[in-house]
Records
---
Amino acid sequence: MWNRKDLVGLKDLSQDQIMEILELAKAMREKIDNKEARKDSLKKFSVLTLFYENSTRTKTSFTMAAEFLGADVNDLGISTSSVKKGESLIDTAKNLDQMGADIMIMRHGMTGAPHLIAKNCRGSVVNAGDGVNEHPTQALLDMFTIHEHKGKFQGLKIVIIGDIKHSRVARSNVFGLTKMGANVVLAGPSTMITSNMKALGADVTSDLNAAVKDADVIIGLRIQLERQKAGMFPDIREYSQLFGINKKLLSLAKDDVIVMHPGPVNRGVEMSTDIIDGDNSLILDQVKNGVAVRMAVIKLLMEGRKNNGITN
Ligand code: CP
């Protein structure tokens, strides 16, 4: 039985809790294609999205997930809100909490912002990405996609390539995947990987060929082009030549390797177009699975609130 008020990261979730989300997401995935089955028990529940950073996939899929479950959904448009008058994060959240949101889904550039709100609000909080810390539902949808295709996590070689240092997606995936018994390898330019990632239980390398050899899963990460200005890589073309995922690199992996990317993709930079659109790519499956996983997360948190008698 689910008993957590918030979902702020995968670091603190148990194996059982991760599997509970993934199993419920499987049932939710069937509802996406069946309009009649979509409406569920969440009528009269209220979901609020607060995105201090831009998003296409995460915000839209959370909104659709909540709507598919029958909940009311509202968005605080940050650019037209009193955040622009200087209202603090904590005051903003406390005011919205007072209006009766059952779940607040938050993306913020500051590490720990959702944790702070979770501690100070009665509403449940879901971290939709905080700084360079975690993006738990992205990792959960990645894990769902991997499990759907490989049927297991134990013993899989999963390689994550790119700007590891600034990637909340990589961190959440390392927490989740290593917990489930996968072997995670992080690969990228040495300016984009910190050695402390090793302490999280992943292997770390700048040797891309060795990383990809016999891989079951390859996850490419978006190169945050703003990092180029900070001198982390000299030239996009050079990055693409040295660390881009292309057919030649893919030939080193297992024949049935699956290729994933959280999006948005810089086509031809971190991944060539023939790989993005190729037979091994599950990038669009990930997007659909994201709706199912977010339905599962919303449903479990709402059930947890009911089970624990928490109201807003
Ligand atoms: N993967 C992801 O977080 O995409 P968005 O930034 O579009 O939400």
Note: Strands lie at 46-51, 72-76, 103-108, 124-130, 157-161, 183-187, 203-205, 217-220, 258-260.
---
Amino acid sequence: MPFSILAETFEKIERVTSRTQMLLYLVELFKKTPPDVVDKVVYFLQGKLWPDWKGLPELGVGEKLLIKAAAIALHVSEQELEALAKRVGDIGRAIEIIKEEKAKKGAAAPGLLAFIKKPASGSTLTVEKVYETLAKIALAQGEGSREIKLKLLAGLLAEASPKEAKYIARFVEGRLRLGVGDATIMEALAVVYAGSAAMRSIVERAYNLRADLGMIAKILATQGIEALKNIKPEVGIPIRPMLAERLNDPVEILKKLGGRALVEYKYDGERAQIHKKGNKIWIFSRRLENITHMYPDVVQMARTGIKAEEAIVEGEIVAIDPETGELRPFQVLMRRRRKHDVHIAMEEIPVAVYLFDTVYVDGEDLTLRPLPYRHERLEKIIAATDRWQLAKGITTSSPEELERFFLEAIENGAEGVMAKAVHEKSIYQAGARGWLWIKYKRDYKSEMTDTVDLVVIGAFYGKGRRGGKYGALLMAAYDPDTDTFKSVCKVGSGFTDEDLERLNDMLKPYIMDRKPPRVDSQMKPDVWVRPALVAEIIGAELTLSPIHTCCYGWVKPGAGISIRFPRFVRWRPDKAPEDATTTKELYEMYLRQLRKIQEEKEAAEYRRRV
Ligand code: ATP
């Protein structure tokens, strides 16, 4: 497949302002894609060479090396290229300009060149060749690898047309900012290979069970939609996690779950999806990163603690006090990430694992089985110790008992409880947030003491002491129905000086010169930011806003939902933008707040009268 087709699509997508248009371009692209190349095309669209969880090396080409390679390919000096890149603000664009100029001169010059027949794009690169060369660049490691990377990249850039070279450079730099969401890719795949957008749900389920969109696309394109319907989880490939809705009233919780529930401690740690195949163990995070290397102690526990040949189990890794065995907060666990020597970290910050689910045991796909069945399987394959055990839980149909257990959980260092449906339909909903699991956390008890996770979509320049830096961020909630990010608030407080110092570098890779296609905002920030970074935000209360687009018109015509006095709490690097609080969740929080205010008003009224 000519790489020029991909480069042209990149260019079109970069300019689109609506998701519908983006979808059309993707459909056009997949129609031109041979089935055996579709995986590579999907990875390119995702801006990566392979899924992150594979733990394979990244390209490892810094700005310097890219400039050096491009200078060799273009027969210009590094200084010349660097100066132009500075002027146009982008190395990729600078390479394109130089190549275009050279091509013009070349075309004008009579002689040999005029007789060589070249395709319209001026290049013969294929998607396969570009992918394979980039993979070789990434996989070149150790001594002499810099030279190998340089040679391969220079060769690639020399062969490419101006436009292709621009996108290869941007890809290498990690700056291919297309903003195409997985949901949009899946919809386009469904249209092209299954004949209808309605088939997206089947593609989605397959992707939820095996989080490798390239692989899923290839199965779909080569074997058809039926093959996707039969897909099972596979050990070593992460499954996208099931997520919970939230409520703060035990009566409502039980009602939602059908009157009876398994109520477990909600541990405040890191979610871990643990895969075992013989002696081999993988640990994947909530965002499906391979975090096996960070937890050699958990690897050991899993090896001896799972009594099955093959299994996928889920649990929470929690920091504990080695003296007392008491649970410690999430922040303590996060210190592990910062330590360089994992073995020292292991000594200083010991952990325990509390297991709560299993989706696969020895060939049996458990995702469509009800929770009690899965739980029984889990219990059977776990050899428990102090540090490796099932999550503490009770099964109850009494709101009073649920409340008591909740208070006990809090007292013992948990965040609250997770209440889970136990009826026949209580399947494992991979990749979905649904009402089969409900979280009940302490902070729901008062107004907006519960934080929300919002996505950065823009930034404002600071004033006064913050002059010359960014001083505030425009934040958005995620709307899964339209796959867009809708603005909620502008947040400027709660940042430490250090946070503000870091903002510039953090935002840099995501800055865009126009509104990102999946962003819906009437407020215009000084700079637009592609949805990528998630932050935890707290405020005084939820309020109606005429400006913000989150839940626009849902409560009242002409108004959206916003947060009054918002404050930054911390970054959530463990969350993808699509994991942010949804517009629907904010709407429900707003309704709960309204109800509470109403109840308080009624109580005050009653007291006045009696
Ligand atoms: P939060 O921001 O509140 O941690 P989240 O958005 O990361 O939530 P949710 O689905 O809303 O994810 O909450 C479930 C999370 O709670 C799980 O991802 C898991 O990490 C954690 N957890 C702790 N104990 C349990 C348990 N017993 N069962 C399920 N999840 C648990």
Note: Residues 48-173 form a domain with the DNA ligase i, domain 1 fold (CATH 1.10.3260.10).
